[in-house]
Design a protein that fits this description.
It is a single chain. The protein contains four helices and eight strands, in the order βββαβαβαβββα. The protein is an alpha/beta fold. It has two domains: about 120 residues, ATPase, nucleotide binding domain (Nucleotidyltransferase, domain 5), CATH 3.30.420.40; about 70 residues, ATPase, nucleotide binding domain (Nucleotidyltransferase, domain 5, 2-Layer Sandwich). It has a five-stranded mixed beta sheet with strand order 3-2-1-4-5. β4, α2 and β5 form a beta-alpha-beta unit. The protein is globular and about 55 Å long. Zinc ion binds next to loops.
Length: about 200
């Protein structure tokens, strides 16, 4: 053991469509503490802004919130759960609830590693949740979440099932009501599962 308590915890961030949360994760106990919530500086706050502008703002916001959380010191390690598919190469390929339209793939982990001076790992938020349950769940399982969107991840044989582009369980925009007056989805389409069944 070396250093004080601050050296023994990781800084963790959850970026959703509405809220950014930052906290301490203690790997010894599995506890998350000192959680702070702020509105995400994305689509929800400025629906008209172009995707590259929102991407920059969200990166700046994560850097700023992490620095505020750690009192300006580089965190020991940084883990980010993000609401969008992440490729095997670490690129955020889309973030419909955070910056809307697809935009250019964003190397979020690389950018945060450069900016914070700490190795940053970025994973899809549902993938992160599946790993959290895998810590206590001995068998294979499927995790479903229903919040502002809807989706699932399958954990099988010690890993989350994803393709090379990070896709797996993106069922929210599946058309389940083909009628012309079906409920309108956030994405602009109609009758999508997310429009019918999510928050
Ligand atoms: Zn949709």
């Amino acid at each position: 053991m070396s250093g004080g308590p601050a050296d023994e915890v990781f800084t963790v961030v959850d970026v959703g469509g509405t809220t950014l949360r930052v906290g301490d994760y203690d790997p010894a106990t599995g506890a998350v503490r000192r959680v702070r919530r702020v509105p995400v500086d994305g689509l929800h706050r400025d629906p008209g802004a172009p995707v590259p502008v929102l991407q920059r703002r969200v990166v700046e916001q994560i850097v700023r919130e992490v620095a505020a959380h750690t009192g300006g010191r580089p965190p020991r390690a940084l883990g980010v759960a993000f609401a969008g598919p992440i490729s095997a190469a670490g690129l955020v390929l889309a973030a419909p609830t955070v910056w809307g339209r697809r935009g250019d793939p964003l190397p979020l982990g690389e950018l945060l590693t450069e900016r914070t001076g700490t190795p940053a790992v970025v994973v899809n938020d549902l993938t992160a949740a599946a790993w959290r349950y895998a810590a206590t769940e001995p068998g294979d399982f499927c995790l479903l979440t229903i919040s502002s969107g809807i989706g699932n991840k399958v954990f099988r044989g010690g890993e989350v099932l994803l393709d090379a582009d990070g896709h797996g369980g993106e069922l929210g925009h599946w058309v389940c009501d083909p009628s012309p007056d079906a409920p309108l989805c956030d994405c602009g389409g109609r009758g999508h599962l997310g429009a019918v069944a999510s928050g």
